[in-house]
Every structure is written in C-alpha cells, then in structure tokens.
Amino acid sequence: MKEVDFKSITVTRTFDIRTLSLTYIAHIIGPEDTEGEFNGTLKRVKDVGNYKVLQATLTIPALERRGENYPVIVLSSKSSSSTYIMGINTLSTTYKQRVIPGEGCLYRISSTGNAGAISYNTKATCYRRTQKVFTYFKAGFEKTEKGLTFLFDEEDEEIKSKGYLHSTSSEEGKVASCYIDFARMLADGVKLASLRYELLVVSEDQDELVAFSVWSFDII
C-alpha cells in the first residue's frame, strides 16, 4: 500500500482584531511541483528530499464564518497526478492542530481487464479512530455530435442507463470498485475523458480546525 502524496504537519488559527479576520496557516509536505488553487497564498518553507514543506495561508472575515460552508485549501501536483483538499472548520475554537484527518492513511489501486473492459479495485486504511473514511471513483465522459463535444459525469441519467460504468463506494477501508465497458462506449461513440479515485476522511470531532481531508488521484 502507498502513502498519500500530500501530508499535513500542523494547522494554526489566528484572529486579527483590527481587521476582524481569521487566518489559517497550514504546513504541508507536498511534491516539488505543488501549486495552490485556492483564495490564499502558498510558499515553500524548506526542502525534504524530493518533497517540499509548504506554507498555505488562508484569511477570511470573522463575521462570515458559517458551519455549513467550509473554506478550503487546495493543492495539486502534475507529477503525482494528485490533488489535496483541506476543509477548514471556521467554528472551531482550537488554535493549533497537529493530528490532521487522514494522517497515516495508506491506499492501493489495482486493475484487471483488457481493451474491451477494465476493472479497478481500491482499498484505503487509516489508523486514527475519531474519523470516518470514504473511498469512491469519479468519471467524466465525452461525446462528439455534429462537431460539438458534450461532457457528462457518472451521475448523468443517460450514462447510468447505458451501463458504461459500474462503481461502488466504501467506508472504513472496505474495497471500492469501478468497472468500465469500453466496448459499449465505443459502439455509442462515447469516450472516457477522465477517471479519478478519491479518498475522503472526515473528522468526528466538531471542534477540530480541519473538518475533512480529500486526496484525489487521476487514473485517466
């Protein structure tokens, strides 16, 4: 089993009484080509082999914090074909958190099949008890008609009815699977535009700074 590419070290929260704003600072180990895709700043702190210790900073107005809306820090790496999303709990009263949801998680992706059809199977193992673990697949499809390209996801009713893809999700480390029927797609002029595996870990402690962590891995 493999470790995830992004590993959180600490997250801290500060309050600026002059601007009435909350600032969240996360230190995260990530691949060398990591880029930030969120409404904040990202800088490199130091090198750790082929990885970097990164500092992600996110500031929000304190009066706009809401429990149902989670500001996120989003990091991505082309070299590892992965993305990391950290969801911030703005209602938390904690000032510093060292143990982040998903810490120590391991995952495995395996596949079997041929040019006509392929099956992917995954399993994730996370050792921390006060969290919920979910694993699932997300797919994107495209079809070109009369020079126009249409995009669909796995929830589209036509995609479901055609049976191009069959997938299962899982909780607490059980195996998740995904079956893709390329032969049936080819007959209908449909292409698989993307396929990714996602690992979602949600904290069960409502006062933690980090409400959830998501790792997304591009397969296709």
Provide the descriptors you would attach to this structure in a database record.
220 residues, Immunoglobulin-like, 2 helices, mainly beta, eight-stranded antiparallel sheet, 60% strand, elongated, 2 domains, five-stranded antiparallel sheet
Give the name of the CATH superfamily of the largest domain. Immunoglobulins
- Shape assignment: elongated
Number of helical runs?
A: 2
User: Which architecture name of the largest domain does CATH use?
Assistant: Sandwich
- CATH C-level class of the largest domain is Mainly Beta
Number of distinct beta strands: 18
Give a quick account of the main beta sheet: strands, pairing sense, barrel closure: 8 strands, antiparallel
Low-confidence stretches: none
**What class would the helix/strand composition place it in?**
mainly beta
What's the SSE pattern?
Answer: EEEEEEEEEEEEEHEEEHEE
CA-to-CA gap between the ends?
20 Å
- Strand content of the residues, in percent? over 45%
Domain count: the total is 2
Helix content: under 10%
Do you know the CATH topology of the largest domain? Immunoglobulin-like
Mean pLDDT: 90
Write a structural description.
The structure is a single chain. With 220 residues, the protein is mainly β. Helices cover 5% and strands 60% of the residues. It has 2 domains: 2-100, Immunoglobulins (Immunoglobulin-like, Sandwich); 106-199. It has helices at 157-162, 182-187, and strands at residues 2-3, 7-16, 21-31, 35-36, 41-48, 51-61, 72-77, 82-88, 96-97, 106-113, 117-125, 131-145, 148-153, 165-168, 170-171, 176-181, 190-203, 210-218. The strands form 3 sheets. Strands 4, 7, 8, 12, 13, 15, 17 and 18 form an 8-stranded antiparallel β-sheet that branches. It has a 5-stranded antiparallel β-sheet with strand order 1-10-11-16-14. The chain has a 5-stranded antiparallel β-sheet with strand order 5-6-3-2-9, with no helix packed on it. A hairpin with a 3-residue loop joins β10 and β11. It is elongated. The two termini are 20 Å apart. The relative contact order is 0.19.
